[in-house]
Each structure stands twice: as structure tokens, then as C-alpha cells.
Amino acid sequence: MQLTGEQVLEASKWWKGQLGLQSWNLDIRRVPYHEVDGNLGQVYWTLSKMHATVKLIMHDQLPDRNLPEDDELILVHELIHITWAALHDHVWDELNSTQRDVYLEQQIHLYSILLVKMRRNTGHKFSWEEEPAPEPCDDMDPSPRGAD
To answer: Quick one: what percent of the chain has pLDDT higher than 70?
Structure first.
């Protein structure tokens, strides 16, 4: 679904709250195709300043008319990158194991809340059965995770 500039800003405010990004300053821009390196959107952030620029491709610049034109989906995709910024910015290597555990638990809790809200608010009973499960890799640890 194509959104107007005002609708994108409205959606970004709502999603900032849902994703725990309230303290982030977001700059959202519509850009030509070449500014998103062949993607539908991109995000650049400065973790220490909690500032991010989200670039969404201009509607008339879509390379393939069969691509979904869901601005909100693209926006949320880019915002989720920010929630995982510590992994991208090599901050992860500087965290001790307790900090890593806290970070991962916060992210898992966030997505748990969002998925439960989605199910409860829409009444939609979703399942992953529609998608085939990924094949296990040889190096995957088959043992179950410990209790959280």
C-alpha cells in the first residue's frame, strides 16, 4: 500500500512506540532508486546519537512493477534494523555476556509482545505452517535452549 508523506510520518511515530525506539530521532525521506542501492528502502544510523535516516524508494522509481508497494512494511523492516543496531555496529563485541543476554532478552521480549498483540488485536490465528521450515545445518546445535 502506498502511503502519503503524512501517513509515513504517522506510521513511523506509531512503530517507534511499538519497537521501543521512542528516544530515537528519525529522518524519513523518499529517494530515487539509485540512493537505496537497488533496494526498496535503507536505513543509516548513529547509535551513539540515537539518530537514523530511513530512505524509502519513490513510488515512480520502483524497478519492477510486480514488487509489493507496501510502504509501511518497508518502513517497519528498516526500523527493525535499528532495534538490532548493536549487532550491526560491532558494539556486540564490546558487551560482556550479561549485557549480551540482557540485549537478546529485550529483543525477544519485544517481538513476543508484537506477535501476541497482532494475534489478539486482529483475531487472526497465524502460523508458520504456510512456510516450509528451514533445513537444519550440520553445525546447528540440536539441544534445546535453557529456560529464560
So the answer is: 77
